[in-house]
Amino acid sequence: MSGFPYLTLMTFVPLAGTILILLLPRDRVETIKRVAALFSLVPLVLAFAVWAQWDQALPRAYGMVLLEHAEWIPSLGISYTMGTDGLSFPLVFLTALLTFLAVVASWHMISHRQKDFFALLLLLETGMMGVFLALDYVVFYVFWELVLVPMYFLIGIWGGPRREYAAIKFFIYTLVGSVVMLVGILALYFGTGAETFNMMEIAAAAESRIPARTQLWIFLALYLGFAVKVPVFPFHTWLPDAHVEAPTPISVVLAAILLKMGTYGFLRISYPTLPDAAKHFVVMFAALGLVNIIYGALTAMAQKDLKKLVAYSSISHMGFVLLGLAAGTPLAIAGAMYMNISHGLISGMLFLMVGAIYDRTHTREIPALRGLYVTVPVIATVLAFTAFANLGLPGLAGFIAEFFVLAGTFPVSVTWVAMAVVGMLVVAGFNLWMMQRILMGEPKQEYAGLPDARPIELFTYVPVVALILVLGVAPGVLMRFLNGPALEIVQRLGGM
Q1: Nearest to 234 by CA among 306, 177, 275
Q2: For position 408, what pLDDT does the model report?
Q3: Confidence label for 115 from pLDDT (cuts 50, 70 and 90)
Q4: Which of 81-85, 288-292, 390-394, 446-450 has the weakest average pLDDT?
Q5: pTM confidence score
Q6: pLDDT, tens digit (0-9, with 9 covering 90-100), for 186-219
């Protein structure tokens, strides 16, 4: 690829959109909406451009396909280093796509303080992009913390009745995790004596320069910061509250992208930098992954609120990522990466559907809903499609991700696979139960004549539905990015 600054533009164009929106008069609502859509569309267009040139690109330093570097604070070894490879690019593309669709969905879902909302949403995109692209620990941490601020206000201002509680709980959980993670980063910096915050250079020096016992403590510090974001049991309790209270577009971004920041941290930082410590905690990873899978599924089955059901479903599915990391085989780790993307698409679509139903019926209570196939057949069909993807129906993206994780885990532990399958059965059960309750039967009288999907809603549904289908029948589309990084991580681990 040329020296064109794709990564810098993908990261900072949304920030430019935030600044422009803040300069616009508050009453220019339509202009603000169009500016937000335009400045969130640019990163998506750039991501398509990078994808189109991927196979022709020459590898750069650190195995990156794209790399952009500039000195920032050389006296401390801090540099603006941004890069993308097969591990980060699918997440960058997911961020660009889902943020753009969240902006478009917000056009009719957000009815007050639109200027502030869209400015914060674009600022959030800058933070998320930076997390997935930064290769310097200080730059990474700045973007990591940047995500916290707009998300706090997006939940706290535009959320539901308990929005302040949910926003503060989210803020406290993630801030504590971030501070502990910062301690781990500083321990890596001073422990290696590398005089740089470059992730790759610290990873190359950490094993030989940091005592084995110290590596375990550093790994745990990093683990806590990332585990809160995933979230891993028992650090998960902020997520259902945040999802229930957040406005629909923010629930989409939270489930589809923010949770992946944690699993990305494991894959980019924890495993390659401290492989011996990672091997030491394999059983813990597996146990917590299985707890996530089974506990999340059982708790989802007990929910009456659609949003809470999808939130606990997310906890369950992120357990498969942890299980794949614990197995440590190339296929299992590739499956964990695949689950990141498939879950992002499926959970994002589920929250869009919950928002569409609530917009029409003004309730998310499952016992209060029935017969939606009669009243809103298009919305009901898309919801059924996404729920089948969520339960792992063959031919859809969710099945491929789960299959890769289980197939990669089988040679390591049949017991782990058997326990994960129990969780999968529960996931299938609550998805089928949910569909039977709200889609079938005679509709309530008050729901007669509800409007079906609007054109702008179909615009947000079609690309996600298409990708769920494509990744279910042609996994090579995504695996071409994931195979290389998965092999590199396994080689770094030296086999587990």
Answers
A1: 177
A2: 93
A3: very high
A4: 446-450
A5: 0.92
A6: 999 888 887 888 888 888 887 788 888 888 999 9
Mean pLDDT of 359-381: 87
Query: Is 80 exceeded by the pLDDT of residue 286?
Result: yes
Domain ranges of the chain: 281-496
